[in-house]
């Protein structure tokens, strides 16, 4: 499932190409992907302009000129592609928005969705999320204070969207590895030094993953060499049985609260 780095990469790219460009065509191939009747959805968007693209956690919000929002959550398997009809991806699309001769293709939204919402509805949904970890206001002191209130495993805490916004399975494991902490360690047992190391790991992993395009499978558009470039940089995630890049250990996979967890038992510890 796309996480903060993937969605932030998309936000940056979308902002370069669709701002203030009129929507000239709307195609809905799967009605369950949207939240209103197809004709209502199309009428609301035809001729509209996106004036701002915002990312919040794993969501993207397209701010429309009339104040409404398009709320996107890609969920598992969702992705975006921006190109001409000739560049149409060989994937099924659930929604297509045309911006002149270019089309924004919403792909793989079998679980994901693109909803038309009011400002109030959008703010209500976003208000339930925890703070952003890359926000400049997320100081070490604030990070420590948020963790003081928590109990449970490190990974479970990191992926809880009501605690911190935007982290999922992949980056929770990568952050724990960078911090040299077991993903199963209990938050309430961490020392002040361990929390400081975790804070630095969060900032480092999420920033590097964002700047290198995350782990998406396909580029955002023809000629895009950034999107997905982080695929080969994961240190532990989905690398079960491979040697640890930091030492002589072997990456293992376990299950924690129904989630896959990847880590190195040799170089990741309780503190």
From TrEMBL:
GO terms for molecular function: 8-oxo-7,8-dihydroguanine DNA N-glycosylase activity; class I DNA-(apurinic or apyrimidinic site) endonuclease activity; damaged DNA binding; zinc ion binding. Its cofactor is Zn(2+). GO terms for biological process: base-excision repair. Keywords: DNA damage, DNA repair, DNA-binding, Glycosidase, Hydrolase, Lyase, Metal-binding, Multifunctional enzyme, Zinc, Zinc-finger. Residues 235-269 form the FPG-type domain. Residues 2-112 form the Formamidopyrimidine-DNA glycosylase catalytic domain. The lineage of its organism: Bacteria, Bacillati, Bacillota, Bacilli, Bacillales. It catalyses: Hydrolysis of DNA containing ring-opened 7-methylguanine residues, releasing 2,6-diamino-4-hydroxy-5-(N-methyl)formamidopyrimidine. Its EC number is 3.2.2.23, 4.2.99.18. This is Formamidopyrimidine-DNA glycosylase. It comes from Paenibacillus wynnii. Belongs to the FPG family. The keyword Lyase applies. Gene3D superfamilies: 1.10.8.50, MutM-like, N-terminal. The keyword Transmembrane does not apply.
């Amino acid at each position: 499932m796309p996480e903060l780095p993937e969605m932030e990469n998309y936000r940056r790219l979308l902002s370069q190409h669709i701002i203030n460009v009129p929507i000239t065509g709307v195609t809905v191939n799967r009605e369950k992907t949207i939240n209103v009747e197809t004709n209502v959805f199309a009428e609301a968007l035809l001729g509209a302009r996106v004036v701002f693209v915002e990312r919040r956690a794993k969501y993207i919000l397209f701010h429309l000129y009339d104040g409404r929002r398009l709320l996107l959550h890609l969920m598992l398997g969702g992705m975006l592609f921006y190109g001409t009809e000739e560049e149409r991806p060989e994937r099924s699309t659930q929604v297509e928005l045309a911006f002149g001769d270019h089309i924004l293709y919403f792909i793989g939204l079998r679980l994901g969705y693109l909803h038309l919402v009011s400002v109030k509805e959008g703010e209500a949904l976003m208000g339930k999320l925890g703070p952003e970890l890359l926000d400049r206001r997320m100081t070490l002191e604030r990070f420590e204070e948020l963790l003081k209130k928590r109990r449970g495993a490190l990974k479970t805490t990191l992926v809880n969207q009501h605690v911190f916004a935007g982290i999922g399975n992949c980056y929770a494991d990568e952050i724990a590895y960078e911090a040299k902490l077991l993903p199963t360690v209990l938050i309430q047992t961490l020392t002040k030094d361990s929390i400081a190391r975790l804070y630095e790991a969060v900032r480092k992993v999420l920033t590097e993953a964002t700047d290198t395009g995350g782990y998406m499978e396909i580029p955002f558009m023809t000629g895009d060499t950034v999107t997905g470039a982080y695929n080969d940089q994961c240190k532990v995630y989905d690398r079960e049985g491979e040697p640890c890049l930091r030492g002589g250990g072997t990456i293992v996979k376990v299950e924690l609260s129904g989630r896959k967890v990847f880590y190195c038992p040799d170089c990741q510890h309780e503190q």
